[in-house]
Protein backbone atom coordinates (compact mmCIF):
# COMPACT_ATOMS: atom_id res chain seq x y z
CA UNK A 1 0.00 0.00 0.00
CA UNK A 2 1.32 3.42 -0.94
CA UNK A 3 2.51 5.60 1.94
CA UNK A 4 1.72 8.97 0.39
CA UNK A 5 3.17 10.84 3.37
CA UNK A 6 6.63 9.69 2.28
CA UNK A 7 6.15 11.06 -1.23
CA UNK A 8 6.18 14.60 -2.58
CA UNK A 9 4.41 16.64 -5.22
CA UNK A 10 4.65 20.23 -6.40
CA UNK A 11 3.52 21.70 -3.10
CA UNK A 12 5.24 19.44 -0.59
CA UNK A 13 3.97 16.28 1.07
CA UNK A 14 1.68 14.10 -1.04
CA UNK A 15 -0.46 13.02 1.91
CA UNK A 16 -3.37 15.01 0.44
CA UNK A 17 -3.38 13.05 -2.85
CA UNK A 18 -5.64 10.15 -1.73
CA UNK A 19 -8.39 12.61 -0.79
CA UNK A 20 -8.04 14.33 -4.14
CA UNK A 21 -8.27 11.01 -5.99
CA UNK A 22 -11.42 10.14 -4.05
CA UNK A 23 -12.87 13.55 -4.89
CA UNK A 24 -12.26 13.01 -8.60
CA UNK A 25 -13.77 9.52 -8.41
CA UNK A 26 -16.99 10.90 -6.96
CA UNK A 27 -17.00 14.21 -8.86
CA UNK A 28 -14.74 14.23 -11.94
CA UNK A 29 -15.11 17.97 -12.49
CA UNK A 30 -12.45 19.74 -14.51
CA UNK A 31 -11.29 21.81 -11.54
CA UNK A 32 -10.47 18.64 -9.59
CA UNK A 33 -8.49 17.26 -12.52
CA UNK A 34 -6.71 20.62 -12.76
CA UNK A 35 -5.76 20.34 -9.09
CA UNK A 36 -4.33 16.88 -9.73
CA UNK A 37 -2.37 18.09 -12.78
CA UNK A 38 -1.02 21.01 -10.78
CA UNK A 39 0.19 18.76 -7.99
CA UNK A 40 1.61 15.90 -10.06
CA UNK A 41 2.82 17.56 -13.25
CA UNK A 42 3.34 21.22 -12.52
CA UNK A 43 4.44 22.90 -15.77
CA UNK A 44 5.89 19.60 -16.92
CA UNK A 45 7.82 18.87 -13.72
CA UNK A 46 7.14 15.50 -12.07
CA UNK A 47 7.64 14.15 -8.55
CA UNK A 48 7.74 10.87 -6.66
CA UNK A 49 3.97 11.08 -6.10
CA UNK A 50 3.39 11.48 -9.83
CA UNK A 51 4.47 7.91 -10.55
CA UNK A 52 2.72 6.52 -7.47
CA UNK A 53 -0.53 7.76 -9.06
CA UNK A 54 -0.05 5.69 -12.23
CA UNK A 55 -2.02 2.62 -11.01
CA UNK A 56 -4.99 4.87 -10.17
CA UNK A 57 -4.74 6.50 -13.59
CA UNK A 58 -4.70 3.06 -15.21
CA UNK A 59 -7.93 2.28 -13.40
CA UNK A 60 -9.62 5.44 -14.65
CA UNK A 61 -8.29 4.94 -18.18
CA UNK A 62 -9.74 1.42 -18.20
CA UNK A 63 -13.30 2.54 -17.51
CA UNK A 64 -16.03 2.95 -20.11
CA UNK A 65 -16.18 6.73 -19.60
CA UNK A 66 -14.21 7.99 -22.59
CA UNK A 67 -13.83 11.56 -21.35
CA UNK A 68 -12.38 10.45 -18.04
CA UNK A 69 -10.24 7.80 -19.71
CA UNK A 70 -8.70 10.38 -22.04
CA UNK A 71 -8.10 12.75 -19.13
CA UNK A 72 -6.29 9.97 -17.27
CA UNK A 73 -4.22 9.01 -20.33
CA UNK A 74 -3.21 12.61 -20.94
CA UNK A 75 -2.03 13.09 -17.35
CA UNK A 76 -0.25 9.73 -17.30
CA UNK A 77 1.39 10.59 -20.62
CA UNK A 78 2.61 13.92 -19.29
CA UNK A 79 3.98 12.19 -16.19
CA UNK A 80 5.85 9.53 -18.16
CA UNK A 81 7.26 12.20 -20.48
CA UNK A 82 9.13 13.41 -17.39
CA UNK A 83 10.48 9.97 -16.46
CA UNK A 84 14.09 11.09 -16.99
CA UNK A 85 13.79 14.13 -14.72
CA UNK A 86 15.22 14.07 -11.19
CA UNK A 87 12.24 12.98 -9.10
CA UNK A 88 13.47 10.55 -6.46
CA UNK A 89 11.26 7.72 -7.68
CA UNK A 90 13.99 5.49 -9.10
CA UNK A 91 13.71 3.61 -12.39
CA UNK A 92 10.05 4.31 -12.99
CA UNK A 93 9.88 2.60 -16.38
CA UNK A 94 11.04 -0.68 -14.84
CA UNK A 95 8.98 -0.28 -11.68
CA UNK A 96 5.76 0.61 -13.51
CA UNK A 97 6.31 -1.40 -16.71
CA UNK A 98 2.98 -3.25 -16.47
CA UNK A 99 1.04 -0.03 -15.89
CA UNK A 100 2.83 1.70 -18.77
CA UNK A 101 2.12 -1.23 -21.10
CA UNK A 102 -1.59 -1.04 -20.23
CA UNK A 103 -1.62 2.74 -20.71
CA UNK A 104 0.06 2.37 -24.10
CA UNK A 105 -2.54 -0.15 -25.24
CA UNK A 106 -5.40 2.07 -24.07
CA UNK A 107 -3.90 5.19 -25.66
CA UNK A 108 -3.63 3.40 -28.99
CA UNK A 109 -7.24 2.21 -28.73
CA UNK A 110 -8.61 5.68 -28.02
CA UNK A 111 -6.28 7.31 -30.57
CA UNK A 112 -7.89 5.38 -33.40
CA UNK A 113 -11.35 6.71 -32.49
CA UNK A 114 -10.43 10.27 -31.49
CA UNK A 115 -13.24 12.75 -31.99
CA UNK A 116 -11.18 15.75 -33.10
CA UNK A 117 -7.68 16.94 -33.99
CA UNK A 118 -6.84 18.12 -30.48
CA UNK A 119 -7.82 14.90 -28.77
CA UNK A 120 -6.00 12.91 -31.44
CA UNK A 121 -2.80 14.94 -31.18
CA UNK A 122 -2.57 14.52 -27.42
CA UNK A 123 -3.31 10.80 -27.57
CA UNK A 124 -0.62 10.42 -30.22
CA UNK A 125 1.75 12.31 -27.94
CA UNK A 126 0.73 10.01 -25.06
CA UNK A 127 1.67 6.99 -27.16
CA UNK A 128 5.15 8.42 -27.69
CA UNK A 129 5.45 9.13 -23.98
CA UNK A 130 4.52 5.59 -22.96
CA UNK A 131 6.99 4.27 -25.52
CA UNK A 132 9.75 6.45 -24.09
CA UNK A 133 10.26 8.66 -27.17
CA UNK A 134 12.06 11.75 -25.89
CA UNK A 135 11.20 15.32 -26.89
CA UNK A 136 8.23 14.74 -29.18
CA UNK A 137 6.36 13.20 -26.25
CA UNK A 138 6.21 16.74 -24.81
CA UNK A 139 6.30 19.02 -27.83
CA UNK A 140 4.17 17.40 -30.53
CA UNK A 141 0.57 18.05 -29.53
CA UNK A 142 0.78 21.68 -28.40
CA UNK A 143 1.97 22.84 -31.80
CA UNK A 144 -0.58 20.76 -33.70
CA UNK A 145 -3.51 21.95 -31.61
CA UNK A 146 -2.45 25.61 -31.34
CA UNK A 147 -1.25 25.65 -34.95
CA UNK A 148 2.15 27.15 -34.18
CA UNK A 149 5.59 26.39 -32.85
CA UNK A 150 7.91 28.98 -31.36
CA UNK A 151 11.52 28.41 -32.40
CA UNK A 152 14.77 30.30 -32.93
CA UNK A 153 16.38 30.93 -36.30
CA UNK A 154 19.68 28.99 -36.54
CA UNK A 155 21.16 31.84 -38.58
CA UNK A 156 20.41 35.03 -36.66
CA UNK A 157 18.84 33.63 -33.46
CA UNK A 158 15.65 35.63 -34.02
CA UNK A 159 12.56 34.28 -32.29
CA UNK A 160 10.20 32.90 -34.92
CA UNK A 161 6.68 31.57 -35.15
CA UNK A 162 6.15 28.62 -37.45
CA UNK A 163 2.46 28.76 -38.27
CA UNK A 164 0.49 25.84 -39.66
CA UNK A 165 -3.23 25.58 -40.06
CA UNK A 166 -6.18 27.88 -40.61
CA UNK A 167 -4.09 31.05 -41.01
CA UNK A 168 -1.77 29.40 -43.49
CA UNK A 169 1.63 27.73 -43.44
CA UNK A 170 4.42 30.23 -42.94
CA UNK A 171 7.24 31.49 -40.72
CA UNK A 172 7.38 34.99 -39.28
CA UNK A 173 9.19 36.96 -36.61
CA UNK A 174 6.24 39.33 -36.21
CA UNK A 175 3.17 39.00 -34.03
CA UNK A 176 0.99 37.62 -36.79
CA UNK A 177 -1.94 37.02 -34.42
CA UNK A 178 -2.41 40.78 -33.90
CA UNK A 179 -1.87 41.90 -37.47
CA UNK A 180 -3.06 40.54 -40.79
CA UNK A 181 -1.14 42.86 -43.10
CA UNK A 182 2.12 44.30 -41.82
CA UNK A 183 4.19 41.31 -40.72
CA UNK A 184 6.60 39.70 -43.12
CA UNK A 185 6.05 36.01 -43.70
CA UNK A 186 7.82 33.27 -45.60
CA UNK A 187 5.95 30.20 -46.85
CA UNK A 188 6.85 26.85 -45.35
CA UNK A 189 8.01 24.06 -47.63
CA UNK A 190 6.36 20.76 -46.71
CA UNK A 191 8.27 17.52 -46.85
CA UNK A 192 7.33 15.01 -49.52
CA UNK A 193 5.69 12.20 -47.52
CA UNK A 194 7.53 9.65 -49.64
CA UNK A 195 10.84 11.09 -48.50
CA UNK A 196 10.04 11.25 -44.80
CA UNK A 197 12.13 9.05 -42.52
CA UNK A 198 12.29 8.18 -38.82
CA UNK A 199 9.74 9.65 -36.43
CA UNK A 200 8.36 11.99 -39.10
CA UNK A 201 7.51 9.10 -41.41
CA UNK A 202 6.03 7.08 -38.59
CA UNK A 203 3.78 9.87 -37.29
CA UNK A 204 2.61 10.78 -40.80
CA UNK A 205 1.78 7.17 -41.68
CA UNK A 206 -0.04 6.58 -38.39
CA UNK A 207 -2.14 9.72 -38.85
CA UNK A 208 -3.09 8.68 -42.38
CA UNK A 209 -3.96 5.16 -41.24
CA UNK A 210 -6.19 6.65 -38.53
CA UNK A 211 -8.03 8.81 -41.06
CA UNK A 212 -6.52 12.02 -39.64
CA UNK A 213 -5.63 13.62 -42.98
CA UNK A 214 -5.44 17.14 -41.51
CA UNK A 215 -2.88 16.03 -38.92
CA UNK A 216 -0.92 14.10 -41.55
CA UNK A 217 -0.76 17.22 -43.73
CA UNK A 218 0.36 19.40 -40.81
CA UNK A 219 3.12 16.91 -40.06
CA UNK A 220 4.59 17.37 -43.53
CA UNK A 221 5.21 21.00 -42.55
CA UNK A 222 6.51 20.13 -39.07
CA UNK A 223 9.06 17.88 -40.76
CA UNK A 224 9.54 20.24 -43.70
CA UNK A 225 11.64 23.38 -44.14
CA UNK A 226 11.28 27.09 -43.40
CA UNK A 227 12.97 30.37 -44.23
CA UNK A 228 13.74 33.09 -41.71
CA UNK A 229 12.09 36.36 -42.82
CA UNK A 230 14.86 38.35 -41.11
CA UNK A 231 18.07 36.78 -42.46
CA UNK A 232 16.81 34.41 -45.19
CA UNK A 233 18.40 31.38 -43.53
CA UNK A 234 16.77 28.12 -44.59
CA UNK A 235 16.36 25.36 -42.06
CA UNK A 236 14.52 22.23 -40.97
CA UNK A 237 11.52 23.05 -38.78
CA UNK A 238 11.81 19.79 -36.81
CA UNK A 239 15.53 20.37 -36.21
CA UNK A 240 14.82 23.77 -34.67
CA UNK A 241 12.04 22.37 -32.51
CA UNK A 242 14.53 19.75 -31.28
CA UNK A 243 17.14 22.46 -30.70
CA UNK A 244 14.90 23.94 -28.02
CA UNK A 245 14.79 20.75 -25.95
CA UNK A 246 16.77 20.78 -22.71
CA UNK A 247 19.52 18.18 -22.64
CA UNK A 248 17.65 16.09 -20.08
CA UNK A 249 14.86 15.62 -22.61
CA UNK A 250 17.08 14.28 -25.37
Indicate the topology.
Elements: E1 8-9, E2 12-13, H1 17-26, H2 30-40, E3 41-42, E4 45-46, H3 48-52, H4 54-61, H5 66-81, H6 92-95, H7 97-111, H8 117-131, H9 136-139, H10 141-146, E5 148-152, E6 159-165, E7 168-172, E8 185-187, H11 198-209, H12 213-222, E9 225-227, E10 234-236, H13 237-243
Antiparallel strand pairs: 1-2, 3-4, 5-6, 6-7, 7-8, 9-10
Explain the overall architecture:
With 250 residues, the protein is of the alpha+beta class. The protein contains 13 helices and 10 strands. It has helices spanning 17-26, 30-40, 48-52, 54-61, 66-81, 92-95, 97-111, 117-131, 136-139, 141-146, 198-209, 213-222, 237-243, and strands spanning 8-9, 12-13, 41-42, 45-46, 148-152, 159-165, 168-172, 185-187, 225-227, 234-236. Strands 5-6-7-8 form a 4-stranded antiparallel sheet. Strands 1-2 form a two-stranded antiparallel ribbon. A two-stranded antiparallel ribbon has the order 3-4. Helix 11 packs antiparallel against helix 12. The longest helix is centred in the N-terminal third of the chain and has 16 residues, at 66-81. The protein is elongated, with a radius of gyration of 19 Å.
What would you say about this model in short?
The chain is an alpha+beta fold. It has helices at 17-26, 30-40, 48-52, 54-61, 66-81, 92-95, 97-111, 117-131, 136-139, 141-146, 198-209, 213-222, 237-243; strands spanning 8-9, 12-13, 41-42, 45-46, 148-152, 159-165, 168-172, 185-187, 225-227, 234-236. The relative contact order is 0.10.
